[in-house]
Design a protein that fits this description.
The strands form 2 sheets. Strands 4-3-5 form a 3-stranded mixed sheet, with no helix packed on it. Helices cover 48% and strands 16% of the residues. It has one domain: Arc Repressor Mutant, subunit A, CATH 1.10.10.10. The protein is an alpha+beta fold. The longest helix is centred in the N-terminal third of the chain and has 17 residues. The radius of gyration is 17 Å and the shape is globular. The chain binds zinc ion (2 copies). One zinc ion (ZN) binds next to loops.
Length: 159
C-alpha cells in the first residue's frame, strides 16, 4: 500500500468515526483526526498543526487546531494525554459509548500508547469513589506510564 493510499484510508476512517458522533461534520475535523490515525503516536498541537499543513498543503493555525482538538476530545474520538500534553486518536472506537472509561498505558521512553477499556467491576469501583468524593465532570480516561516491550528489550540489550 502506498503512503497516499494510507492517507486516503485514514481520512475515510476518520470520516466514518466522526459521522458516528455527528452527522454534519466539518472537513477539518475529519482531516485532523486522519492525521492522528495515520500517525498512531501522541503528538502535540503544534506537531499536529505542522503535519496537517504538510499533508494537505493548507495553512491552518494552531488556534484552530486547538479548537478542533477540543471537539475531538469532547466527542471521545481522541484523547488528550495529560502526562505528555499531547493528543492521540482513540484506539478503541468504542470510547464513544456513553459512560465508558479507558486505561491508557504510555511508554515513558518512546511514548507508545496502549488503550484498553476497563472492566465493569473496576468501572463500578471507580464510580463509587468518584461519587463519594463528590467530584463531577471527571475525565473519561486513566493514564499510567511504563516501559513498552520494545523499549524493555532495547534496554536489556545495552552492554
Ligand atoms: Zn479511547
Ligand atoms: Zn517504548
Amino acid at each position: 500500500m502506498t503512503v497516499m493510499a494510507d492517507a486516503e484510508s485514514s481520512l475515510h476512517r476518520a470520516r466514518r468515526i466522526i459521522e458516528s458522533r455527528e452527522q454534519r461534520t466539518t472537513d477539518k475535523r475529519c482531516k485532523l483526526l486522519a492525521v492522528m490515525l495515520a500517525e498512531q503516536k501522541p503528538l502535540s498541537a503544534y506537531e499536529l498543526t505542522d503535519k496537517y499543513n504538510r499533508e494537505y498543503g493548507e495553512h491552518i493555525i494552531a488556534t484552530s487546531v486547538y479548537r478542533i482538538l477540543d471537539w475531538l476530545v469532547n466527542a471521545s474520538v481522541a484523547h488528550r494525554l495529560n502526562a505528555l500534553n499531547k493528543y492521540v486518536a482513540c484506539q478503541q472506537e468504542v470510547c464513544i459509548q456513553h459512560g465508558s472509561i479507558s486505561l491508557l498505558v504510555i511508554c515513558k521512553h518512546c511514548e507508545k500508547v496502549s488503550e484498553k477499556h476497563i472492566s465493569d467491576s473496576l468501572r463500578q469501583a471507580i464510580d463509587e469513589h468518584v461519587s463519594q468524593s463528590k467530584f463531577s465532570h471527571v475525565s473519561q480516561h486513566i493514564e499510567m506510564t511504563g516501559e513498552c516491550e520494545k523499549c524493555q528489550n532495547q534496554i536489556h540489550q545495552r552492554p
